[in-house]
Specification:
- By secondary structure, the chain is mostly beta strands.
- The protein has one domain (2-51).
- The chain has 1 helix and 3 strands, in the order E-E-E-H.
- The chain has one helix at residues 43-51; strands at 2-9, 15-23, 26-35.
- It has a 3-stranded antiparallel sheet, with helices on one face.
- The radius of gyration is 12 Å and the shape is globular.
- The model has no long low-confidence stretch (mean pLDDT 85).
Length: 69
């Protein structure tokens, strides 16, 4: 079982964080949250990160410049 946090661009400079757990090649337990760069990440999403032994993300990361140009 492998767990990941992925980062995707969203509308108007927002960022989407996506957790994904792969179990024998099948995606399980997907969670998404979208917010503005620098805004706090919701407690429920941070709890999901902890249960999957992923690094805590307290605030949304900055939108990469090549996405938000």
């Amino acid at each position: 079982m492998d767990s990941y946090v992925e980062l995707y661009p969203a509308k108007q400079g927002e960022v989407t964080l996506h957790t994904r757990t792969d179990v024998q090649g099948t995606k399980k337990d997907n969670f998404y949250i979208t917010g503005m760069s620098g805004a706090p990440v919701a407690a429920w999403f941070r709890a999901v990160l902890r249960t999957r032994h992923l690094a805590d993300i307290a605030v949304f990361p900055a939108c990469p410049s090549d996405w938000c140009a």
